[in-house]
Amino acid sequence: MRRLRLKNLFEINNFNYIFIYKKKHHLLNNYLKDERLNRYNQANRDVTKDKILSGSFFLYRCFKTLGFTKEICLKAFSTASSYRIMLPRGDFSYSNSGDYHVLTFSLTDKTGVDIEEYRDRPEITYKRFLSYSDESQNDLKLLFYKKWLAKEILFKQNQVKSISYFHLDNYICGYSFSSTKKTKLFYLPNLLEDNFAELNFSMLE
Fold it and tell me: SS3 letters for the chain?
């Protein structure tokens, strides 16, 4: 796998990007502050605290790798409780579920992303969420999750058009960019290092 080393934002103008991190047991120092720290302190469960802290480190690594200034990286790490910050250039979207954190980024496109655990639910749940015409489909579970992800993505970014999907272990991820520009996929093995590895989508099949 090729490692990602970007010197500045001009190197990435020809592509859209997806960054992925899967939870590992890193000992992370809590450098959170402002709204993010308040959200962390208000969390009742350790798993929620860990997700907030891991997500903060993940966003920091993503924006640092993309070539943003230290000021922007620190804002992404700690400023907003929702992880949503204004960028001087480009658009991004972030989602987490269980073991996974995912971020999409584009210099030129609008983007949205959502990830969910792909677990079985009662059939009545699928039917309540889906329309009557959908019930003729063979795989109600897959259709349910695709429509759920689409709903979440459109809530985050209503300018996106078509939505693509891929599976990660027992999770399903949906993402969208507002153009058909080529998308590159990268995986971060360690939150403590700027060391993204490029993946092929075929590796996820």
Answer: CCECCCCCHHHHCCCEEEEEEECCCCCCCCCCCHHHHHHHHHCCCHHHHHHHHHHHHHHHHHHHHCCCCHHHHHHHHHCCCCCCCCCCCCEEEEEEECCEEEEEEECCCCEEEEEEECCCCCHHHHHHHCCHHHHHCCCHHHHHHHHHHHHHHHHHCCCCCCCEEEEECCEEEEEEECCCCCEEEEEECCCCCCCCEEECHHHHC
Per-residue pLDDT reduced to its tens digit, 114-170: 999 999 998 888 888 876 555 556 788 898 999 899 999 999 888 877 899 999 999
Given this model, what pLDDT does residue 123 score?
84
- Entry pTM: 0.90
